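Dear all,

This email documents one entry for the complex benchmark we are building for the journal club exercise. For each entry we list the sequence lines for every component of the assembly. Then comes the predicted three-dimensional structure of the complex as a token string, followed by one or two observations. Please use this as the template for your own entries, and keep the labels exactly as they appear.
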Amino acid sequence: MSPDEEFLVTLLRALQVASLEAIVVGNAGAALQGAPVTTQDVDLLIRDTALNRDKLLRFATALGAARPVEISELTSTQRIIGAAWPVDILFETMSGGLHFASVRSRAKTIAIGDVSATVASLEDIIRSKEAADRAKDHATLPILRDALRVIKLLETEKP
Amino acid sequence: MSAEDAEVLAARVVALRDRLAPHVPDIDPGDLMLILESLLKPIGSGRRFLLREIRPGVYVA
């Protein structure tokens, strides 16, 4: 495994320790599905409950990182700093009006080593990036859309 | 990845490219090979996708 993959395994084990249900979204989720993209952090979507806020602290501790901090006053997203890579936590919704329950209903389970990740569908990741409308999203969208088309094409070829 | 594994991967990428390219003529051939290589190297097989910024504007995987 690469250090990147080992970090994901560490992250998924920390989620297990904290009993925190999370969906991998963003470019890390796209990479898990085979899209040739890179990212500087891992984005996780979780339900926004008081219990989950407690679990989040346990997750950060299990990850060997600091407690989550607000990214800015303009967003509820929190960042966990101090692990091998930053981890961003999105509460309940992501760009594109996508809610946890609906994203989870379309999510895929992807095994990494002896653990597995719940990963947002590539369609949902693309939709959220289209809605987020940031320059870095526009830079990534063409290759994500092409990767999705190739994946769909390969699926139609399966017997 | 061993040289032998790399040869097998390259052959699979080229075979898939030849088969799929006519169906997606608007996808850049280089991008198509990049996508196929990524798809054929699943997570757990040594893929790199997390970047670090070592100084402003300079990233390493």
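Observations: Residues 20 and 56 of chain A are 7 Å apart (CA to CA). The first helix of chain A runs from residue 3 to 18.
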